[in-house]
Design brief:
heterodimer, A: 309 residues, mainly alpha, two-stranded antiparallel ribbon, two-stranded antiparallel sheet, disordered C terminus, B: 240 residues, alpha/beta, Rossmann fold, six-stranded mixed sheet, four-stranded antiparallel sheet, 37% helix, globular
Chain lengths: 309, 240
């Protein structure tokens, strides 16, 4: 492969990873924007999402990569799997907020953040207990169709992942920009007390942020399984920390920033793995996290924390 | 009586803010609430909106006690705030800010009518409707803040320091518009440091000092009151 082919190939890989990180980063950013809370349970909502999706695919009779679907059945199975996974993951997010975070809403200090770490470990151990420690072979009904572009290979499943991620992110962006509750979310993020005095039910807004963020994390978990053909109870931490870096890089609380940050982190992972060594991936990514926090804490797209009175 | 406070006390933790406060506001009035820093003026506004709950006493609106109602329910019943220092949503457009004012109302003919009314009161707001609110000047932000409150189609408008931080020319304009809004039928309860301006448009006023109502009366009476002249209108008493 020539250098150009390598760059092209790693761009394809980086965009796929980036799409996944971006979906995950949005959940951090939505919740932080409204509550100024870093939600570490989000890591493992993503992981649980990949297991829920695996369960749904198994219900369709898919257990490995041997059953291949095409055309309408493929689209139908994927649509149903994404929908069920996203709604269930969203419900888990809402339950986490309701049971463990709302009682702490007016407690100052890091109590709520520490609680999210605890919840993260609970999810982690539930999956470990129920599903076991070994990595799972992920059901994947997508046909292997490869397109050759110059010297690079573009897989059909990668194109599908891009499409799904784009549709979800576009949908989220439109929702936040145009819908009534989306506008209430933005208003609450910018001035919670003023929003309340316009008649906004802040509890509902918080619930919506958790639902949307967790639903996207669930979709990200499914994409992880389809992309790597495996899942395991430990996938949450690495992917979660990288996505968190993406959110900080884009300016935490900034929705388009999280998407761009996700793609940048995905590209760095792919290029770093190709041109440096995969062993260095996390060193590079977390060095970026430290540098951003030290030199540009508002992120690339410069938006500081919401103004609170 | 549109709004009444009956023996209201409020606390922030151990701090006793409002102490046995009584107000009575008739429909159609402009009532000013004067007082220095930390006198409890903003707490009064927050108590009306339900952001602060009284520890004792009643808040009666339109004949019903509302002190236990959620903020949203109060807005639905026709109480809207113009907040201290404007408090627009800085990264939303002017139009989106106006929409937030009408958050609890349905879209339709009434919304359009109210939007027209706001645009005719504030032609400047119409010109700037697509602009990000945080980039407007202070005077323009004040217009949007008032427009946003009017989009709730309020019966009672609660204004917290409408003149704060405004250039003198905008202060005049703001008070002219407050009078105009009142003439169109909205009752106004206004907290104000600028006693001179406030008393020039108010029908009546209350004076609050460290959480207690120390004086009340018609604006004309208060303008003549020596204590007010000294403390709030900036006139020195000549010792004789």
């Amino acid at each position: 492969m020539t250098l150009f082919d390598l760059l092209l190939q790693q761009t394809i890989n980086g965009l796929s990873l980036g799409a996944m990180y971006a979906l995950l980063a949005l959940g951090f950013t939505l919740v932080y924007g409204i509550l100024e809370l870093i939600n570490f349970s989000h890591f493992n909502v993503f992981m649980v999402g990949s297991f829920i999706a695996m369960g749904v695919l198994q219900l369709f009779g898919l257990t490995g990569q041997d059953v291949i679907l095409t055309g309408l059945p493929l689209v139908g199975v994927l649509l149903v799997t994404f929908a069920v996974t996203m709604v269930s993951s969203g419900a888990i997010g809402v339950a986490i907020e309701r049971l463990s975070l709302r009682p702490l809403r007016n407690v100052k200090g890091p109590a709520a953040m520490i609680t999210t770490i605890g919840v993260s470990y609970i999810l982690f151990n539930i999956i470990l207990l129920v599903c076991g420690a070994e990595a799972k072979n992920y059901p994947n009904p997508m046909p292997t169709v490869r397109y050759h572009i110059a010297g690079a290979v573009l897989d059909l499943r990668v194109v599908l992942i891009w499409i799904v991620a784009l549709v979800l992110m576009g949908g989220l962006y439109l929702f936040v920009q145009k819908s009534r509750i989306g506008k209430a979310m933005r208003a609450t993020a910018q001035d919670a007390e003023a929003a309340r005095m316009m008649g906004v039910d802040v509890d509902r807004v918080v619930m919506m942020a958790f639902f949307l963020g967790s639903a996207l994390a669930g979709a990200g978990g499914l994409i992880f399984g389809l992309y790597y053909n495996f899942t395991s109870f430990i996938i949450g931490f690495t992917a979660g920390l990288r996505a968190f870096t993406a959110a900080v890089l884009g300016g935490i609380g900034n929705v388009p920033g999280a998407m761009v940050g996700g793609v940048i982190i995905g590209m760095i992972e792919a290029m770093g793995g190709q041109f440096i060594a995969t062993a260095w991936t996390d060193v590079i990514i977390f060095s970026i996290l430290v540098l951003v926090l030290v030199f540009k804490p508002a992120g690339l797209f410069g938006r500081m924390a919401p103004t609170k009175s | 009586m549109l709004l009444e406070f009956r023996h209201v006390d409020t606390h922030y933790g151990d701090l006793h803010v409002l102490k046995d406060v009584n107000y009575a506001i008739e429909p159609g009035e402009i009532v000013a609430l004067l007082g220095g820093n930390a006198s409890g003026k903003s707490t009064t506004m927050k108590t009306i909106m339900g952001v602060v709950r009284p520890t004792r006493g009643q808040v009666i609106y339109d004949g019903e006690p509302i002190e236990r109602l959620a903020t949203a329910e109060r807005v639905r019943r026709g109480i809207a705030p113009v907040l201290e220092a404007r408090r627009l949503f800085p990264r939303m457009t002017v139009f989106e800010n106006l929409e937030m004012g009408a958050y609890l109302r349905k879209r339709g003919a009434e919304f359009d009518q109210d939007l027209e009314r706001v645009y005719s009161l504030f032609p400047r707001v119409k010109e700037r409707h697509g602009q990000i609110a945080g980039t407007l000047s202070g005077g323009e932000q004040q217009m949007v803040a008032m427009g946003r409150a009017l989009m709730a189609r309020p019966r009672l408008l609660c204004m917290d320091e409408p003149s704060m931080g405004l250039a003198p020319i905008f202060v005049e304009q703001t008070f002219d518009i407050i009078q105009e809004i009142n003439r169109q039928g909205t009752t106004i309860f206004m907290v104000e440091q600028n006693a001179n301006m406030a008393l020039s448009i108010a029908h009546r006023a209350y004076v609050l000092q460290t959480g207690q109502v120390v004086l009340s009366g018609t604006a004309a009476e208060l303008r003549q009151n020596p204590m007010i002249r000294e403390a709030y209108l900036g006139e020195l008493q000549v010792e004789t």
